[in-house]
Design brief:
The structure holds two protein chains of two kinds.
Chain A (H helix, E strand, L loop, with lengths): L3 E4 L2 E4 L4 E8 L5 E7 L6 E7 L2 E5 L6 E7 L2 E7 L7 E8 L9 E2 L3 E5 L1
Parallel strand pairs in A: 2-11
Antiparallel strand pairs in A: 1-3, 3-8, 4-5, 4-9, 5-6, 7-8, 9-10, 9-11
Chain B lengths: L3 E4 L2 E5 L4 E7 L4 E9 L6 E7 L4 E4 L2 E6 L4 E6 L8 E9 L7 E2 L3 E6 L1
Parallel strand pairs in B: 2-11
Antiparallel strand pairs in B: 1-3, 3-8, 4-5, 4-9, 6-7, 7-8, 9-10, 9-11
The chains are: A mainly beta, B mainly beta.
Chain lengths: ~110, ~110
């Protein structure tokens, strides 16, 4: 695998379930990001990690819990989600946290909350 | 707060025509403006970017122009082809702090043969 990978690609879950999204980057980057993409809305930045340290939590509800065990892996743990959380969740990485570094995106996880 | 307005939301052109997408940003300190292309079911991919010390940048059939005074920048695609059909996102960021991109809402471009 090359670039940024995400699993699963599709996920259906009930509001009481607990699930996790996984992102892995094979680019040797030091910064990783979670974005939420909803229809006809701008990509919303959720979390930013630099060298496994969280740099930004963009006012995201606590039902979303990120984890970055090392600079190559990023998780998003989900619990007691709401139907309005249904969206495409994109992971991205960049060489480092410096502004103007190109961000490389994964293919996303399409999440449906019933 | 910071935001980026993008227009139009949808654009339909005939193959061979030109397409122009425009974005306006609110943060006057923004100095980096990338454009991403997202084909149906695929990931967003950077296609071109411009920095504030440059007014225009070209790469084959695509070009981006920047007007810092007016705080707007545009993507120009010439000689459009069906494979240009996708959603295009503009973004803006500023130096300092971390690598935070503020995205526009996207433009769905359809190129008809």
């Amino acid at each position: 695998e090359t670039g940024v990978t995400q699993t699963p690609r599709h996920l259906v879950m009930g509001m009481t379930n607990k699930k996790s999204l996984k992102c892995e980057q094979h680019l040797g980057h030091n910064a990783m990001y979670w974005y939420k993409q909803s229809a006809k809305k701008p990509l919303e930045l959720m979390f930013v990690y630099s060298l496994e340290e969280r740099v930004e939590n963009n006012s995201v509800p606590s039902r979303f819990s990120p984890e970055c065990p090392n600079s190559s892996h990023l998780f998003l743990h989900l619990h007691t989600l709401q139907p309005e959380d249904s969206a495409l969740y994109l992971c991205a990485s960049s060489q480092d946290i410096t502004a103007q570094e190109t961000q490389y995106f994964g293919p996303g996880t399409r999440l449906l909350v019933l | 707060g910071e935001n980026v307005e993008q227009h139009p939301s949808t654009l339909s052109v005939q193959e061979g025509d030109s397409a122009v997408i425009k974005c306006t940003y609110s943060d006057s300190a923004s100095n980096y403006f990338p454009w991403y292309k997202q084909e149906l079911g695929k990931r967003p991919q950077l296609i071109i970017d411009i920095r504030s010390n440059v007014g225009e940048k070209k790469d084959q059939r695509i070009a981006v122009t920047l007007n810092k005074t007016a705080k707007h920048f545009s993507l120009h695609i010439t000689e459009t082809q069906p494979e240009d059909s996708a959603v295009y996102f503009c973004a803006a960021s500023r130096t300092g702090g971390y690598n935070k991109l503020i995205f526009g809402a996207g433009t769905r471009l359809a190129v008809h043969p």
